Amino acid sequence: MRGRESAAILRRVIRLLPLLLIVLALPPAPAAAATTTVCALSCDTLDPSRAQQETFPLPDKNINGRKIQLHVSVPDGMDWASIDLGQAGDSVWLDRSWDGGATWEGLLGKASIPSTWTGTRTLMYNIYDPVGHRRGVIRACGDANAVGCTDWLYPNVCDKLCDNTSPSQAVGDTQPVAPTSIYGRTIRLHTDANGMAWATMEGNGPGDEVWLDRSWNEGASWPDGSSLGRTTTGRTTMFATRDPRAKLYGGAIRACGKEATHSNGSCTAWARPTPTRAGAAADALMYSYDTYQAWWPSSWWNSAATLTALIDYARQTGNHDYDWVIGRTFDVNKGSFPAGVKSSDPIDGDFISRAIDDSAWWGLAWIAAYEYTHDQRYLTEATTIANYVNGFWDTSTCGGGVWWDRERTYKNAVTNGLYLRLTAALHLDTPGDSTWGQRAITAGNWYLNSGLINGANQVNDGLTADCRNNGQTVWTYNQGLAIGGFDELYKATGNGAWLTIASRLANAASTGIITESCEPNCDDNQKQFKGILARYLAELGDQPFLQTQANSLWANDRDALNHLGLRWAGGSPNPADWRTQASALEALTATQSPAGG
């Protein structure tokens, strides 16, 4: 019996074998595109009840009498979809594309209408990914016995002008990189003062093509910016290189072309436009700002100094593109963080940690924010920080001065320069104050007589255990903080003696091109020191010296993407990151004409 059953099974398998072979030969079904959670100001799947705004920028889509709508909150950079006038089982979702609509993540937030309801909505999703340097487009879709979608939202990029603008509207013509050539044709990249770009081909013939590529990640990829304005006329239209709506400010661009009878093409190098020196430096700096974590990863005090540099830039130039960064940084970072998240130390809240100097850097940042915006919460925060720092003023060792750390191990120049500047600024910004003013005078007198300033009017790093100048490195930011502290004390008191001291310290630092003693092997802290000196020298008006710094770093310390390195006189190696960028931005902002450097 068992043998007959086995034979029958075998015969059935043999009969099904051709069908099985056909199935195995079929290509695999395409897998659904993986959806990665995007975090910009908020993360994907935020509830629409938390939207700051609701707009309807696109026409509704009608599917068999159902209404599909795309809802957008511009302040959040997010949107959601809804279906109304529907029946149970009808559904709605979002599609999001990172390559201009060629491919997309589908069915985002898909929701179906429950029984007894006539409509529903999705959760909110980000339109853009500034942290990942991607620009998205998005649409609302629905299924009500048929599938339909709205148009894609924001297919064009708009800054001061929008994509596909005529070059006749260009404001100037700069060629930021060398042209390229192919088969006797010359291809050039052009940019203007509005950050718009276009491409031209010289010596072109019938059928020759020229175009632009635009990248949001410094030329690593350009999925939504390939072959922009492709034309056989020899000149493309203009395209924007900044997308403030998407919080993408540092787009890179290149010009490309091909000769009609050959398939290969040629492109210039990637470049960022330079509408102004300081503006170009600020755009490149913002490339490294993490909009979700709201800082420049991953340095805590450097982020405070960098925010101050950005505020100085805005105040000097009148450019308000980055004003949102101030409030964003404040709101996200005001709380507490365990060690390793924002610093190697825990952050206790209110930007305070065991590092007294780190805390004071944030105090100066919020003083700058208050003086720029007049928002009282920033002055309140600076006062909170200053009270904490003041708790480490100690007359039992060296007759005064603020300790560098909570463990009270060292009295040094940076912490006391910060304290002097902070107390004097609080006196100026606090109506009717007497407390902070007296503290500033006490700090100034102590600093002047502490021994921190050597015989050459330079500031050494700190004091020995027996309260003598320790002879350690004269870091540029120690010199800068002393200059800025005494100058602010002069403004707070009107006593010209303090200005004389600040000027004497400035004269000792104003020779040649500013150089840090550690160059070119400075650590992440030291990379930012020189900008602090430039910031406070600017207050004393040493413009010829500062203009020399700006001219040198622009000519010798910059690449085509407007990265600015450690060595303002140039040279190799020349490390560059957001810290060196912020430092150089201070020098560019410090000139009389910061827009032009």
Report on this structure.
- The protein is an alpha+beta fold and 597 residues long.
- Among the domains are: 48-149, Immunoglobulin-like (Sandwich); 167-267, no CATH class.
- It is built from 13 helices and 19 strands.
- It has helices at residues 2-25, 277-286, 300-317, 323-333, 356-373, 376-390, 413-429, 435-449, 476-493, 496-509, 529-539, 543-556, 578-589; strands spanning 61-63, 66-73, 78-84, 91-97, 105-112, 120-121, 125-126, 128-129, 134-135, 137-143, 147-149, 180-182, 185-191, 196-202, 209-215, 228-231, 239-240, 252-258, 265-267.
- The strands form five sheets. Strands 1, 2, 3, 6 and 7 form a five-stranded antiparallel beta sheet that branches.
- α3 (300-317) packs parallel to α13, α5 (356-373) runs antiparallel to α6 and α7 runs parallel beside α9 (476-493).
- The radius of gyration is 30 Å and the shape is globular.
- The chain starts with a helix and ends in an 8-residue tail after the last helix.
- It holds the Pfam family Glyco_hydro_76.
Question: Summary?
Answer:
By secondary structure, the chain is an alpha+beta fold. Helices cover 33% and strands 15% of the residues. It has helices at residues 2-25, 277-286, 300-317, 323-333, 356-373, 376-390, 413-429, 435-449, 476-493, 496-509, 529-539, 543-556, 578-589; strands spanning 61-63, 66-73, 78-84, 91-97, 105-112, 120-121, 125-126, 128-129, 134-135, 137-143, 147-149, 180-182, 185-191, 196-202, 209-215, 228-231, 239-240, 252-258, 265-267.
